Amino acid sequence: MTSVVKDGAAPDRSSGRGASSSIRAAGLISSLTLLSRLLGVVREQVFAALLGAGLHADAFQIAFRIPNLLRDLFAEGALSAAFVPTYTRTLTEQGPAAAHRLASRLLTFLAVALGLVVLAGIAGAWPLVTQLAPGFDAVPGKAELTVRLTRLMMPFLPLVSFAAVAMGMLNAEERFGLPARYAALCPGAEYGPAKRWPHFKELAERLDLPVVLLGSPKERAQCAAIKGRNLAGETTLDEAIELLALAQYVVSNDSGLMHVAAALRRPQVALFGSSSPRHTPPLSDKARVLWLGLECSPCYARECPLGHFRCMRELTADRVLEKLGSDPVFRENGA
Asked: What span, in angstroms and rounded, lies between the C-alpha atoms of 28 and 38?
């Protein structure tokens, strides 16, 4: 399992990020922010079409305003302004484990504090509505509807606050726009070139899902030539495990990350060449092994002693795609 530890080695965060990386990150955040604003316009149009400008619209606006005012403080105001720089500094100076402990403590505090705030808001909804919307009780049913909606919307506050903390953590670690559904590819193998399948680039270009590439810092250049989100050398072991656990499926060489994916019971295709799946198979009912079993394999050499590398070269991307498309374990998981 030594190779797994190396695959998950923490990057040197003390080195400066490149200007191109900063520009890409800023561009992505700006684009997503613009998209959110456009969706906000659509939301307001739908709101106006459904509720119009009557009693129900007024009640909704006031009921939503109460938790929304608190959101500005707990989710997008002073909390975010204080948390993100502190988290970033802790991440840089003390490492990911200390930063995650900081975030855990904050989330625990928010769960308790905002839970009390929500309970207070539900209990005191009537005086809150009276203060924010004087005159509503002059219209029969209007104040009662507003109070009822206020109580329903109060749990919105802790949920959006938790999301703001998670977003701050992702931004501090330069994680922008990771897709909800993706395939994890692990092109490296610490043992040597004889274990490394040469067709990952072709496979990534032909997959229907977005691709996330995982591996060690030494494999970053190899992964850079493959289409997808290159996270090789940028994750801790814990983060690599989380990314494998959330992947729709995994394609890997016979490596440490292959065994991690098997332990997580993720659907995977494990590619064998110079080694043998009879000796080091992925121990999972959701793993599918592809191995040509040539007369010269397994040789257990770090490099092909015959120079032809047929055991991996002749294991084509078509074979992997056929397995992904035909095996029920992948179809059931949305491959």
From this structure: 15
Compute the chain's Rg from CA coordinates. Answer: 26
CA distance 127 to 234: 51
pTM of the full predicted structure?
0.55
How far is the C-alpha of 192 from the C-alpha of 302, rounded, in Å? 5
Instruction: Quote the CA–CA distance of 231 and 22 in Å, as a whole number.
Output: 16
10 Å Cβ neighbour count for 57?
14
- Distance of alpha carbon 2 from alpha carbon 43, whole angstroms: 51
User: What's the confidence (pLDDT) of residue 4?
Assistant: 32
Determine, yes or no, domain membership for 64. yes
Which residues have CB under 8 Å from 285's CB, separation 6+? Answer: 265
Residues 6 or more apart whose CB falls under 8 angstroms from that of 296 comprise 306, 310, 311
pLDDT 10s digits, 125-139: 888 888 888 888 788
* CA atoms of 55 and 142, how far apart (whole Å): 6
Choosing from 172, 195, 228, the residue where a domain stops is 172
Asked if residue 273 lies in contact with residue 195, where contact means CB atoms within 8 angstroms, the answer is yes
State the residue range of the domain holding 126: 51-172
Task: List CB contacts of 325: < 8 A, sequence separation 6 or more.
Answer: 331, 335
The whole-angstrom separation of Cα 228 and Cα 261 is 19
3-state secondary structure of 211: strand
Asked, for residue 18, whether it belongs to a domain, the answer is no
